[in-house]
DNA sequence: TACATGACACCTA
DNA sequence: ATAGGTGCCATGT
């Protein structure tokens, strides 16, 4: 696996995450699937930790809108990262209780046609 | 080369 | 709801 290929995968992931709208969340697996990388949820976490300055292509990457498939924040409760993510989510009206978000209410339901328009792969 | 380690997901208890 | 086992694969040692 060449470095270029890896970087391309990261970019697909970043681009997909940028499509998650304000006030909504997506799971790592969901992002992986939409990014054309089914079964690669763990790669999404890696990619999010590697966004240069939290920005890609002049747009911020809302990493905090990505949580696990159970609706939980994946950082350890009480950690700085955990608190930061909780705050950022609550700042956009996403309810976080016990480190968990109700996916029924807040999970992003992507519009396929809109997505095809936005994603370049 | 081998092994450990993840911002995970899925299935079974 | 929680816990353990397995699959996954890029990274780091």
TrEMBL record:
Residues 10-94 form the Methylated-DNA-[protein]-cysteine S-methyltransferase DNA binding domain. Pfam families: DNA_binding_1. One of its GO terms (molecular function) is catalytic activity. The keyword Cell cycle does not apply. The keyword DNA damage applies. Keywords: DNA damage. Signal peptide: none annotated. One of its GO terms (biological process) is DNA repair. Coiled coil: none annotated. This is MGMT family protein. It comes from Litorilituus sediminis.
């Amino acid at each position: 696996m060449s470095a270029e290929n890896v970087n391309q995968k990261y970019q697909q992931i970043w681009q997909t995450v940028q499509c998650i709208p304000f006030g909504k969340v997506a799971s790592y697996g969901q992002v992986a699937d939409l990014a054309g990388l089914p079964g690669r949820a763990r790669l999404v976490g890696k990619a999010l930790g590697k966004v240069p300055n939290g920005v890609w292509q002049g747009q911020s990457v809302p990493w905090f809108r990505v949580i696990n498939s159970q609706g939980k924040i994946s950082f350890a409760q009480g950690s700085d990262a955990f608190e930061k993510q909780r705050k950022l989510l609550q700042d956009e009206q996403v309810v976080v209780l016990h480190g968990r978000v109700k996916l029924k209410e807040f999970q992003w339901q992507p519009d396929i046609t809109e997505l095809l328009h936005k994603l370049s792969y």
